[in-house]
Every structure is written in structure tokens, then in C-alpha cells.
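Worked example (supplementary).
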Amino acid sequence: MPVEGRNTRVVIDGVKPEIDSGRFPAKRTIGEEVVVEADIFADGYDVLSAVLLHRKDGDSEWIETPMEPLVNDRSRGSFRVSELGTYRYTIVAWVDQFKSWRRDLSKKVEAGQQVEVDLLAGAQLIGEAGQRASSADAQLLQKWQKTLSSTQDREQARVRLALSEEVLTRMEKYSDRHSAVTYPKELQVQVDREKARFSTWYEMFPRSTASQPGRHGTFKGCEARLPYVAGMGFDVLYFPPIHPIGLANRKGQNNAPESGANDPGTPWAIGAEEGGHKSIHPDLGTLEDFRRLMAKAEEHGIEIALDLAYQCSPDHHYVKEHPEWFRWWADGTVQYAENPPKKYEDIYPLNFESEHWWELWVELKSIMLFWIEQGVRIFRVDNPHTKPFQFWEWAIAEMKKDHPEVILLSEAFTRPKIMYRLVKLGFSQSYTYFAWRNTKWELTQYFTELTQTDICDYFRPNLWPNTPDILTEYLQSGGRPAFMTRLVLAATLAASYGIYGPAFELCEARPRELGSEEYLDSEKYEIKHWNIDRPDSLRDFIARVNQIRRDNPALHRNLSLDFHTVDNEQIICYSKKTEDLSNVIVVVVNLDPHYTQSGWVDLPLSMLGIPEQQSFQVHDLLSDARYLWRGPRNYVELNPHVCPAHILRIRRRVRSERDFEYYI
Amino acid sequence: MPVEGRNTRVVIDGVKPEIDSGRFPAKRTIGEEVVVEADIFADGYDVLSAVLLHRKDGDSEWIETPMEPLVNDRSRGSFRVSELGTYRYTIVAWVDQFKSWRRDLSKKVEAGQQVEVDLLAGAQLIGEAGQRASSADAQLLQKWQKTLSSTQDREQARVRLALSEEVLTRMEKYSDRHSAVTYPKELQVQVDREKARFSTWYEMFPRSTASQPGRHGTFKGCEARLPYVAGMGFDVLYFPPIHPIGLANRKGQNNAPESGANDPGTPWAIGAEEGGHKSIHPDLGTLEDFRRLMAKAEEHGIEIALDLAYQCSPDHHYVKEHPEWFRWWADGTVQYAENPPKKYEDIYPLNFESEHWWELWVELKSIMLFWIEQGVRIFRVDNPHTKPFQFWEWAIAEMKKDHPEVILLSEAFTRPKIMYRLVKLGFSQSYTYFAWRNTKWELTQYFTELTQTDICDYFRPNLWPNTPDILTEYLQSGGRPAFMTRLVLAATLAASYGIYGPAFELCEARPRELGSEEYLDSEKYEIKHWNIDRPDSLRDFIARVNQIRRDNPALHRNLSLDFHTVDNEQIICYSKKTEDLSNVIVVVVNLDPHYTQSGWVDLPLSMLGIPEQQSFQVHDLLSDARYLWRGPRNYVELNPHVCPAHILRIRRRVRSERDFEYYI
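After joint prediction of all chains, the assembly is encoded as:
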């Protein structure tokens, strides 16, 4: 006899979310609902019942919520997550004999058929439920059983009882689950804090914050800059590495192979006589200064994010203390970083294939923990794709045990499958290809993939229109309107985005050379003095956009993103909305930074909760203008030299004369 | 230390085919190639190597074939299956240090960089391979190692050697697999005989084959009908149940609740005094007659398929001998089949939830084996969706152990997920919703789903334009052209199809009543005498279509189906082709059975192997007409009263004056 063949009729399949057959957790944030769907079916025509089970990791008891059938043998249930950490969920389903019987009885009654024998069968099912019930309910069920089977009573009254909601509710409570099948996997959902989903980043080189040109900035200078950053509405302030910088093979301005005496070197060449990954560059200040800065930032509603760049300058103490963590050439030199034919002589990658990989893992984890001890809760991880997947999975899980509130942003501009794998392994957010998606078709394709496929269950995009490494051709050639366009897109297409400033708000757009995406006189290799008070700065515009983000919950999530037709390839239109449609945002952007473009926007009114036959108001939160629209097609016109975008909030219904009390 | 973290860098993922995480086998037929694809990637930039492993179940040794990288970290390999039964396959992949080194060396050389130290590193890799090599190869590798590391030799010559194909080939043979990762699942492919994929079915009631009206047909009568069936080109002749039919509650003509003395009853009410599922209806003949018929059929290239209908008439001996295999009402009667409010009093379903389910399973398996012993190798299974999935999985696996050549057609016109589940469990083919897909949009959607998604790896559709239960409204109202249209669609959209005849070829189209899909005077309840020699019969047309199917290998498979644009919603166009494009078939069908329709067909020339700038000939295999076409857009016009379809074979190139020897 191969199996218990009688009681395994139900199939549970096609569960969502389920990342890679349950190998990885889905991701949610505190307070969110986890909606679970599955194909649940059996042979034949019986009615099935199903429940969704969930529990916090560590809790011993499952909590049950019912699953409701949708169409095509698909069922749905949900639960809300209220704590950081991991939750588990699975599904139980069974052939519901009572509900099957009830459905058939109802059909037969409707067709006017004899049901005497059916009522006896029902009485038996109710009697059996009585055996499983608590004493009060048991009495009730026994009474019903008796009524149904007493052939003296009028059939009509017994049928009414049999089909009553009261009986159904009680029978659901004591449903016969002897044939219940449990989905064989316990699936997981990782619950993070809200900022893992909704965050607004500002990247800044601390060394470029001195009040006078030519000086090395300090954490004190950063403190002075806090009101400026907070004023624009950012809530994460991310610093490139703040550690001592190597002298050996230090690069000069514009990545020159030789450096001059005053060249500060790139912050990513970590490690010098003054220390390594757990030390602070002496010119920036002390650990105490850093902690003070964090405290001040908190007062401004800002968290400091640090860069985790697991690599060394030739002067890093690891090189001497742990030569086994590096690769050596046959000529006795350490292999520096290369991407042939490019050479990065100032940086030594770590060798994760070392026989001493375990000591290396432990040390790298200790770096993370060191900064967590200083109060850091957000890290941007440099090039995570050049370190083994297994390392990240282990290190992040280890760290999350005690610190589930930590957020990690993966800086992996690598091939898509590697990018996705990293976030599956535990990164909270990821950089994307946004910088290289400029046309309507590109943006629509890419963001449909990110938000409308299974990817959205684990991948949280963080959009950067620029970084110290990326000055896109669109920004180089589009002038100020291009910066405004890309800002609006980044801020509204995804719940998390960031800019590298002050280069961004000052519209810095000069490339090192034609065809290069590197900045001319890049801040990576020199200290800059930015005039943040320039009148043409985008700071006020950015502040406005970020205020709109904060005020509108539709922009706090990625899932509801939907693209709409515009009869002009230069204008893109999309909407986001809360589930209850209380907040509906329609964004219209002119992608052409040079010329005014106009067109007709097509909105799916009913999806957005707008009545088909009434006027509605759209309120441009950028310009504060209000327009009266009616019907699905409406005209837009955007002059990029004024403002290349509308961020429209739908104000549902417009009053008409019928609302006026004298009208009737 | 959580894992062996150093040597597990490679990820193997997204393997196809892989049905439900490997829970079910993919399906192929003998001689076919199993193409396997997977995402194979690692951190960083190293070059990876991968091999596909396969073996026949029971063989101990894996056979390796290389996998080649495609785009986007996807790799592909394949193997050919040559025996019936189950094959297993999996994937091994590793970081290929030599290939990574070789790629980098080549880039550095190209950039004119110093590579002395690189050559030393390569020499070491080659030396290590030497340790793993057979003695002859070891010598060679040692020699190369020496050459590469001898700094006296000219660098240019050493580089040439290092990058040579000769070294590469040898290094591939002794590739360092210490970091190899094996995909954790052994996936399966079920190999059937060709007829599981490519088959042409004819359904016929044996009792309606008497030469004179009013007589009960016999197996002898069936014998006489064989040349007719073979002449139309069918290779499977399927009989509804041939067993004794119950008397109790027997249905009369047109499913009347009462039967007259001469009513034969429906063949699906199996079991009477004369026997049950292992017996033959006495009026049809004996077991010997049946075996003789099978032998005769074989001479005509036809296999007989029997109906496996696991249900009983009230007179079946199971009811007395095994009352525990049925459901009983409280009033002491057996529950007949119901689909409330419909009642089938002449049929008792089996109760698979019986406590004696195991004895029932064993008995049902023995029925299958009984007919296999008589020589039957094809079964059409009646309503498999009302029996538990577990039963089918067990019974089919048991049967296939000794009889992998058996083919099972699932008659499950049920909800899609149940239909798909059944074929995953082991059915070789399945009925489909084809009968209810009539418009271009419906056909395109449905057949794209069946042939262009993962479904095609396990689901083999068998298309029936009619069955004894289904006379579609399209056939009812469309006349002879409708039958021709549906035949061409069935015969060319899928590799397997069937008709219920002679009702089909005689264009029988009268419904029991308006709005019903039941035949008037249905053969299910009475013996028919068909005049198969009627001059308006479609037999010659069917013979032609089936001949075209046999002659054109493009029509033997489902995978290559592709729909093409026509600027008329009433005309559908699609193509099928062999992989080498030696056989390309374009089908054009007028779906309007009433009026001539015309339009412009758009063909993707390059996909079909047709040169863009040359004329090509299309040969209509139905009418034998030949047309000269040029370019992607060509005109078609189809009069349904002449012939509603073209089945065009592309004759690639047309000769021009340039081919004439005097031209130059």
C-alpha cells in the first residue's frame, strides 16, 4: 500500500508569495498585510475549505485565518505582520463534506426534488460535528441533528434550518478535518521596518563640507549641513567610506595614476597607518564626533548610512597581518583589483577563496557589528556582487538575529540575476538600472517588471538618477530640466530613491570626457567646495517633491504602479494609489528636456475610483494648480523650462448644481 | 562555521524543464532531444563551465554533455532519449579558473599590457591540470607548463600557446572541478513512444457497425469497417465501453428516464449478469473475436483503444460483492451519480473514500492489466477527474513499470488546473477545450498557452471537434464548411486529434433541442445505422488531411506553432516547422462557414527560412494549387463552400533568370 490514499485528495499548489520554492523569504514591513494566494483543488466536485496559518518565528502556536475562493480554483487569505523578524506561513485545506452536502441540498431544493434522504445524511454530519464540539455547542448541534432527522416535522422547516447561516457558522467551527492536507513547506516572510520600503537618500562626501575652499571637511561640517539636507526632506544621509585612506598607489585628480601631495585619494581605498575599516579618517574627526553627528542627525529626522566596502588599500593592516586573505602573483606581489584592461592599483580585493575564508568572514562580520555598536543602522554595501553569495546570506542572517532593524542597500549594478539573487539573500534594498532607463518604453518595461512580477515580493528598488560613478548622458545633455525630470521619476516610480549631492541639486553635468559617465574633476579623487546657496539650485524643488512623497501614502509603496497611455512618446504617465483609493496620485512627465510637449492622457477611471460621468479635479502638487477633468481622456502640456512634470492628486468628485440645496 | 563557504559560489537556478519543482517528469517521445536550460551564475566576473548529466533510470553512470552559455547568464545543453521509460538529468557547474585566466590574458594582450606574471599564473594552472591528466596528456601539459614559465622564451610565442585552441581543449578535459556545484534535484523525463505525441483517432460505437439497420453490430462488423477507417488515415480506433450493460434504471432514447425493451442502454452503464469490466457485451462477440479484431486492425496500421470507465451499473457484480466500494444513503439505497439537479440513476460511482479503498485500487488496476494482457495498449480514460489524483499516480506508475508503451488519454473536460494535474500525474494525452474555442482570438490565446508556456513540457493536447457528448453550436449552425474548418484546425493545431464518426464525416448536426450540445437521437442511447457511402461524406477530405499530416513532420509536433497576423478577424493563420526548416507548413483557415473571406497574411519570413528579397512558392496541399508569393504580405481568399482552408507547404526558393546558366 503506497500511501494513505483515501485522505489525500486535496492539492495545494502555486502558492504566492513563494520565492524560489520557498528557499528565500518574501519581504514586508511592519504593519503590512501579507496576502497569500494558492491553487487549492481536489478531484471531483466537492467543496473545499482552507485556512492560512502563520506565526512569528519562535512562537509555537499557529494563528489561523480563513482563505476565500477566488476564480479558477485559486484561493486567497492574509495576515498582518506587526513585529520585526521572520514570520512563517503555510496552508491547510480539506474536502468539506458539510459544505458539499449543503450546496447539493440547496440545488435539489431549488429543482423541487425529494430531499428526505439528504436531510438524514446532513443530520449525520451535524451529529458527528457535535462529537467534536465544546459542550455548549455540542448540545445545539445534537438538537439540530434531531430536528433534521425527525421525519414527522415539516420538510420545508427542516430544509430552512439545514441551509441556515447559523448552522453553517457552527459547522465551520467544527469542520471535519480528517482529510486535511497541509502544504509541505513553511514559507517565510522577512519583516523590516518601514524605512526598508520607504526612504529618501542623500549621498554626500563628508570631506567636502568645509565652510572654506581647500579645507578638509569634518563631521562638524556635516553637522552644519544637516539643516540643509533635512530641509530638502531627506531621511537617510549616506557617506562614502569614512576610514583612513591608503597612500600606496593613491590616485590623483580624475583618477590619474600618480597623485600629488595634496590629493586626498579615493575613500574606497580603505586602510592606512591610522587604521582600517573600524577607524575614522583623522581629518574627519573622532569616533565621538561621529556619534555626536548621528545624534544631531536624529534630531533632524535623519539617519546616517555608512558604506561597507570590503576591500583594502595596499597600506591596510590586513595586508601585513593576513597575507592569506589576498591573492598573490607568482612574482610575490599582491593582486590588485582589475577588470582587464582596467587596473585599480590602489585597491586590493579580498580573496574569499582563501583557505582561511572562515576567519575572513568572521572579521568582516565584526566590522558590521562595530558600526552597529556605534549606532549605525543603515549600510550601503559596495559591490556586493564581487563577494560570495554564501557570505552575504550568512553575515546578514547573523547580524539580523540581534538587529532586525538594520537596513542594507545593495550596490550591485551587475547582471540582473546576480542583482536579484543578492536581495533574495537578505539585502533590504537594491540599486537598479534606473539611471539607464530614459525613454517611455524603457521605463514602462523595467518598472512593470519590478513591480508587477514576483520580483516585487523580495526586491525593493532604490532609484538613483546620479551617483559619484554615474553622470548619465541624459543629465549631461539635458540641462536643468533633465535633472528635474529624473528627480520626479526617481521620487515617484519607487518608494525609495536617492541623489548624490550637492552635485545633483547644483545640476553638475560636465563629464570627464565625451562618452564618459564619470564626472569631470570627480569628488571621488578630490575635495570639493560646493556653493549650495546658488540661486539656480534645485533644493526648493527637491524639498517640494519630498514633501509630496511624505504627504501621499500612495507613494510609499511600489505595488500599485500602473502605466497609462499618452498619445505622445515623449510624455509618460503613471499612477499609484492606496488600496482604499483614498490617495490616488497620477504623475505626468515630459521626458524631452528641450521642448514643450503636449498630448492626451488616457486614465482607467474606474480603477482609480473616478466616476465615469462626473467631472473630477486634479490637483498638481508641484505647481499647486488645479484642473477640472472629465472622462478618461484629458489634455496635458508640459514646458520643461518651467516644470517638466505634474504630480497630480485626484480630488474625486466635483460639486455641481445638484449639490446645492435649492436645486431640488 | 556554517557551510563550506569557499567552494559554493555557483548558483544553478531556473532550470527548464522542471515541472512543479521537479515533482513531476517532463514528457518526451523516443528519438526526441531534451533541451535543458538553466540560469548559471556566480559572484564576480569569473567564467563558469557547466555540464548536463543524464542517465536512464536504473543506469548507474551519468552521461555528460557540455552546456553552452546563451545571454543573460542562461545556459543550454541537450541530450537525446532513445528508450521508453524514465530518464534523469541534473546539472554540474563550476568556476573555471583556466577560462577566466585565459579571457583576462587575452584582454590584457589586446591592450598591450605586460603579461609576464599572468603567464606564470597560467603555467601553474596548466601544471595542476597535468596532475589530474592521463599519462600521455600529463606529459603534454607539463611541457606547456614549462614553456609558459620559461622567461627566456619570447613572450609573444608563449602568449600564442597560452591562448591556443589546443591548450583550451586539453584544459577543458582536465578542468579543475574542486568548486563544482551540483543542482540539488535529479529531474525526470518520461519517454513514451511516438504515438503518445502524434496520433490520429477515430471514435466509433462497435454496436453501430451492423450491415443492416436494426441489428446489433459485432466485432466482425468492426473488422469490415477497418478499411474505411484506415482509408481515412486514422491510426487509433477508439471504442466506447464494450462491456455488458446494466438493465436496472437503463435509460431510453435521448436519455429518457424509462427504457423500452429494445433500448440497448448506454455503454457507460457497465456491468450486468453477463459480467463487468473484464467482460465483453455478448452481442459484440467473444474475447477471441476481440483479439482477432485487434490483429486485423494492426494489419491496417490501426491500434484499438478501449475506454476505461471506472463506474458501475446497479447490476454490476461489484455492487453485491463489494457494497463497501459504494456510498449508501441512510435509507439503505446506493447513491447513484448526481450533478444536482441532474441524476444518473443507471450509474453508481465508486467510493474512493471507502475504508476499503486499497482493495478497490488493486481491483481497478487489475482491469487495466486484464486488457493489456489481451493486447490493448491505448486507453481513453472516462472522467478521470472524479477519481483521486493519488490513485492515478499510483496506478499509472504501476502499470508503466512493465508496460511503458501504454498510452492513456485523459477525458477531463474539467477545470484547467485539474486537467493539467492529471497529465502531470501520468496521462499521456488529454482532451482540451478546443471544442469551445472558435474565434481567432480564442484559438490564438488557447494554443499559445498550450504550446508556448511550460505546459507544453507535460501536456499533450488531443483535439476533438466533436464527441458523442459534444455537438458544438458552431457545427450545428455552420453546415459542411464548419465541419471542414474544425477538422483542419484540429488536425493542424495539435499533433494529436480525433473525431467521433461516422457522425462527423456525415456532418450530423441536429441537436436534441435548441441550446443543447447533445446529439438528437444520440448514439449513446441507441444503435445507429450510418450510411457511410453517402456522396456528401467528408471521408475523402479527411483522408487528404490525414495524408498531409503523415507527410509533413512539422505537423507531428506542437512546439513550433506560431500565429501570424491577418487583417481579417475571420481568417486565422499559423505556421509549424521542423527545427531545420526543411518542412514549413502555413495553415490559413476561414473561420466563417457562411461567406467568402479574404485578407492579407503577414509572415515572418526570416523565422520561416524564406529570403526577404526573393519570390517563394506556396503549395496548397489540400487543393494542390501552387502560388507565387513575395515579401511578407500576401493575399488569400477562401470560399468556405469550396474549401475553407489552405494547408500551404513553403517551397523555399523560386528559380529566376539568374539561375539560368547563360545569365552571367
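Two points are worth noting when inspecting this output. The radius of gyration of chain B is 31 Å. The longest helix of chain B spans residues 473-493.
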